[in-house]
């Protein structure tokens, strides 16, 4: 952020007193102080010069001046945690609930200093000495990092020793490795240390993978860390095993902890010793993970629950294990939300306000705002909030300036206001509140002071929002006035701007710290931070330059489009190929507005006339010109309405299609297609949305009264709509082989996803069916376009695609297709029907009641027709796995038709069906692959898809058996009949398996307590009726 512009300062105020020594009136003044005292004493009463000697006034002035000159304010020191006190102070802690912390003692001494005759002396250590106090996990991590960075010299890691460690060996990258008694004297310590370790300490015999990243951490002895593991700012105990691909950041782990592979611990995690961390564990905030429950001593303020074999400890007051200040605030009953980067809470920020009434008022405002925020937003809620705030103001006698300040301060502390998006959204919703309280300029200044206090107390996260919030309140919401902002800025001192820049630098340092691989040395890191900060400032300046350049480029593009638009109008209607290409290029540049539609229509008309004049000459348009013309044309057609002039842009295409099937015009039409619609453009046309544009034109041209009539698929549309339908086939007719299948797939996909279902069913699909009957396209090309099953690459699953396939099924009866094509057709119908049943409830297209009834009736008629039964008989004669499963999909249609006789008496088909049925497998609850029938025997449930597949196949198989057995007499059944495909022993085995499956399904449907519960319910109903 750029520094604040230096303000002009006035010169220091100098008072000059000229006294005449010969005048008797100045004798008291001249006799009291000398002429060169350089002190200016202001007297409000002129008579004081003659009536008093000014001794009392001068003495009071001297005391105030002495207090101000002897007071020193320091902001560069930190509390060391060392306090020495007398025995009287320590005795006051016993049985005194007011004295719980050191701050309580200091506050009591300052208030009662003159009564208790107690004083406080502060000793500031020299710059060569360092002291630090560890009070919680956060300060423990900071102390560990400061020791490794050698801030407490001579207490540094390489000078420390213990019973099991004779010292630490210092390596490069500020890494320290413990040396045991056996390894003492060796140049290289035992154990593997990752080359990606920085500013860390390792215990004895640690095994760390070379790909693991370790920074600012302490690792205990005999600890193993897997590959690709990220450990940052952590303390890990002894004999721990950290798996591969783990992520640990700002965490404390005890000894003998096991972390599985791929685990990511949340920040500020506390894991006690002997914990085997389960995979996929969802740990709540402000909790600790332990291997044992808490002892009885902690039952009053610690709760625990068992989750996956471990105990989750949480404080009863909702505090955090990580910061001691948060726990102290929670025990004192403070309210407010925790700030992730700071240890103070919102209520703690207002604990030191001057009045208890103001504190109570602020708490009630926060409570009211949080309650209103949880309700559904309405203007009435805002009026209720204003009434509650006014009531609290009158109850506690709060001034309007304090109301304006604390209301906005409470608003900034609401949950969710940490991000700019949610803060902006809430400001827009609560504008009635701001309009009510911030009309006067004094209230606006108090609002800005609330922003300033919020920044000073929570500057890490709130710093990026200050400038944007003030600008938003001034420019967008019109809450602040310019004079108020200027007056507030003039009141800010240089220290505030230094603090703003300081926190900006600290925030940047934190980002650099999290992204760097490690530290090289502590004394060089500060220089790197400053360089990175300067680089960030330069980057922001370059970003501003880029934004300015983009705006200029946009302005230049607008000016260029207007210049081309004027040139287009000046040139007028093109009469040559070169002029046409030039006009097409200009059209692509400036065609971005509906006002240019008339120019596009004029260009299409000129192109049509030019092509008609040069029919015998080959006038070719460059591919790039064709592409840009297609884009402009599609944009125009897609946004045109019923009253738009879209006849001229498509007239040349209508001219092609209306004469395409005439023999005498074929050569001329072919040359015309080669001139403009090139075969290479067909795939591009399909991808660019050609079919969607033509289908939208068809839906716009269909009269509304035609949509209200009963669906009639045999009626032919009007000539104009017929010509548009013929235009759908143009790209398909100009392609071959794989390109034709791809273009066909784009066309059918556009038909299936079109939302005007009535037009697709009544006009487009029947025309497509007639083209297939007239051999314009081959049936195998259409079948290949459908694919084996619906997917993102083929056609979407649903009612529309299945109906499309069923309509085309009648056409295939007129063609002589081979056995492989019949099998492919049967499997395609089965896959689309099965997919339709799966997504039937979640259909993305809305069908009317009449349309849906018509489609379902038509599909059922087709699937019960002679053509489809012939396909089913083909599947019975060729019982491959694909054909048998296709027959299972259509089990209802087969059981209600004559095909059931052929299937029931076909040993190969029935044997294959039984073999597939008993070998169905899926994943069991234990994760192993198991047989469906075995799972049901053991009482394990099946997933929906597996259960549907098993029951459908079992229904078809049992239906065929019942049909065969019921058509045979008892004597023929015993002696054997040709229609019986299985022997008696095989039938016994089959019936036994079917019985076990049925019992398993019954056990899953009706648990053991079902009948007991049902009986109890019946008895209750009977007794209720008697009463």
UniProtKB/TrEMBL annotation:
Under SUPFAM superfamilies, the record lists:
ARM repeat (SSF48371), Nucleotide-diphospho-sugar transferases (SSF53448), Trimeric LpxA-like enzymes (SSF51161)
Query: What one GO molecular function would you report for this record?
Result: translation initiation factor activity
CDD domains from the entry?
IQCD, W2_eIF2B_epsilon
- What's this protein's name? Translation initiation factor eIF2B subunit epsilon
One short Pfam family name for this protein?
GMPPB_C
Give the compositionally biased regions (Acidic residues).
Answer: 336-354
The UniProt entry, under InterPro entries, shows: ARM-type_fold, eIF2B_epsilon, GMPPB_C, IQ_motif_EF-hand-BS, Nucleotide-diphossugar_trans, Trimer_LpxA-like_sf, W2_domain, W2_eIF2B_epsilon
Q: Which GO terms describe its cellular component?
A: eukaryotic translation initiation factor 2B complex
- Source taxon at top rank: Eukaryota
- Please report the stretch or stretches of sequence annotated as the W2 domain: 355-517
Q: Which residues form a coiled coil?
A: none
User: Which stretches does the entry tag as region Disordered?
Assistant: 324-354
């Amino acid at each position: 952020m750029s520094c604040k512009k230096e303000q002009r300062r006035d010169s220091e105020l100098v008072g000059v007193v000229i006294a005449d020594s010969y005048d008797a009136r100045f004798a008291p003044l001249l006799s009291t102080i000398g002429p060169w005292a350089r002190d200016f004493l202001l007297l409000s009463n002129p008579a004081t010069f003659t009536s008093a000697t000014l001794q009392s006034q001068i003495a009071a002035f001297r005391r105030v001046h002495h207090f101000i000159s002897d007071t020193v304010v320091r902001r560069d020191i930190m509390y060391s945690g060392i306090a020495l006190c007398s025995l009287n102070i320590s005795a006051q802690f016993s049985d005194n609930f007011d004295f719980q912390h050191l701050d309580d003692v200091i506050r009591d001494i300052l208030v009662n200093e003159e009564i208790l005759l107690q004083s406080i002396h502060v000793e500031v250590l020299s710059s060569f000495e360092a002291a630090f106090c560890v009070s919680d996990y956060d300060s423990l991590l900071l102390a560990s990092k400061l020791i490794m960075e050698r801030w407490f010299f001579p207490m540094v890691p390489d000078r420390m020793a213990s019973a099991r460690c004779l010292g630490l060996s210092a390596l490069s990258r500020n890494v320290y490795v413990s040396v045991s008694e056996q390894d003492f004297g060796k140049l290289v310590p035992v154990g593997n240390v990752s080359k990606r370790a920085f500013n860390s300490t390792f215990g004895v015999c640690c095994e760390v993978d070379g790909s693991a990243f370790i920074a600012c951490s302490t690792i205990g002895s005999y600890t193993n860390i897997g590959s690709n593991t990220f450990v940052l700012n952590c303390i890990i105990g002894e004999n721990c095993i950290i798996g591969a691909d783990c992520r640990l950041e700002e965490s404390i782990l005890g000894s003998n902890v096991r972390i599985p592979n791929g685990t990511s611990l949340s920040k500020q995690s506390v894991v006690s010793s002997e914990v085997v961390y389960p995979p996929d564990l969802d740990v709540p905030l402000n909790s600790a993970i332990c291997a044992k429950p808490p002892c009885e001593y902690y039952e009053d303020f610690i709760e625990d629950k068992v989750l996956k074999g471990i105990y989750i400890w949480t404080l009863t007051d909702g505090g955090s294990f990580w910061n001691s200040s948060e726990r102290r605030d929670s025990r004192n009953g403070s309210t407010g939300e925790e700030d992730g980067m700071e240890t103070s809470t919102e209520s703690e920020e207002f604990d030191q306000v001057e009045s208890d009434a103001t504190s109570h008022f602020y708490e009630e405002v926060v409570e009211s705002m949080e309650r209103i925020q949880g309700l559904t937003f309405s203007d009435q809620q805002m009026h209720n909030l204003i009434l509650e705030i006014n009531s609290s103001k009158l109850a506690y006698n709060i001034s309007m300036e304090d109301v304006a300040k604390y209301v906005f301060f409470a608003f900034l502390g609401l949950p969710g206001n940490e991000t700019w998006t949610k803060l902006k959204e809430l400001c827009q919703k609560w504008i009635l509140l701001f309009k009510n309280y911030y009309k006067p300029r004094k209230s606006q200044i108090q609002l800005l002071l609330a922003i300033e206090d919020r920044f000073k107390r929570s500057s890490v996260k709130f710093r990026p929002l200050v400038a944007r919030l003030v600008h938003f309140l001034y420019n967008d919401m019109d809450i602040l006035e310019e004079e108020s902002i200027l007056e507030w800025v003039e009141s800010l001192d240089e220290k505030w701007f230094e603090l703003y820049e300081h926190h900006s630098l600290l925030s940047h340092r934190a980002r650099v710290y999290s992204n760097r691989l490690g530290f090289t040395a502590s004394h060089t890191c500060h220089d790197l931070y400053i360089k990175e900060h300067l680089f960030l400032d330069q980057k922001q300046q370059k970003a501003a330059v880029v934004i300015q350049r983009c705006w200029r480029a946009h302005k230049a593009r607008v000016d260029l489009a207007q210049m081309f638009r004027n040139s287009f109008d000046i040139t007028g209607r093109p009469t040559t190929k070169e002029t046409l290409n030039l006009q097409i290029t200009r059209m692509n540049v400036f065609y971005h507005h509906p006002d240019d539609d008339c120019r596009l229509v004029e260009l299409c008309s000129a192109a049509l006339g030019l092509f008609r004049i040069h029919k015998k000459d080959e006038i070719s348009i460059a591919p790039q010109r064709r592409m840009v013309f297609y884009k402009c044309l599609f944009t125009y057609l897609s946004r045109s309405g019923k009253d738009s002039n879209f006849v001229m842009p498509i007239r040349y295409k209508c001219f092609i299609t209306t004469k395409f099937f005439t023999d005498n015009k074929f050569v001329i039409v072919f040359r015309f297609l080669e001139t403009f619609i090139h075969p290479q453009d067909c795939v591009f046309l399909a991808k660019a949305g050609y079919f969607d544009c033509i289908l939208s034109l068809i839906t716009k041209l269909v009269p509304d009264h035609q949509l209200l009539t009963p669906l009639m698929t045999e009626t032919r549309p009007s000539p104009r709509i017929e010509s548009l339908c013929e235009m759908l086939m143009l790209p398909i007719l100009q392609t071959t082989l794989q390109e034709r299948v791809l273009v066909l797939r784009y066309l059918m996909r556009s038909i299936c996803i079109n939302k005007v279902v009535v037009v697709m069913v009544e006009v487009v699909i029947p025309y497509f069916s007639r083209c297939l009957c007239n051999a314009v396209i081959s049936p195998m090309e259409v079948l290949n376009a459908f694919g084996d099953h619906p997917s993102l690459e083929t056609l979407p699953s649903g009612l529309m695609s299945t109906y499309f396939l069923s309509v085309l099924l009648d056409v295939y009866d007129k063609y002589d297709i081979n056995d492989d094509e019949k099998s492919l057709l049967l499997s395609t119908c089965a896959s689309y029907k099965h997919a339709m049943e799966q997504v039937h409830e979640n259909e993305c297209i809305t069908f009317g009641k009449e349309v849906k009834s018509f489609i379902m009736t038509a599909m059922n008629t087709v699937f019960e027709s002679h053509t489809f039964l012939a396909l089913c008989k083909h599947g019975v004669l060729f019982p491959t796995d694909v054909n048998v499963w296709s027959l299972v999909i259509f089990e209802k249609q087969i059981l209600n038709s004559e095909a059931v006789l052929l299937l029931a008496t076909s040993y190969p088909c029935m044997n294959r069906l039984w073999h597939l049925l008993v070998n169905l497998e899926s994943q069991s609850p234990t994760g192993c692959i198991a047989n469906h029938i075995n799972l049901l025997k053991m009482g394990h449930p099946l997933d929906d898809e597996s259960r549907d597949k098993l029951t459908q196949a079992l229904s078809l198989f049992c239906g065929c058996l019942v049909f065969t057995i019921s058509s045979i007499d008892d004597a023929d059944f015993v002696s054997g009949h040709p229609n019986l495909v299985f022997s008696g022993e095989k039938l016994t085995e089959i019936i036994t398996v079917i019985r076990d499956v049925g019992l398993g399904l019954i056990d899953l449907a009706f648990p053991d307590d079902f009948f007991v519960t049902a009986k109890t319910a019946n008895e209750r109903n009977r007794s209720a009726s008697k009463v």
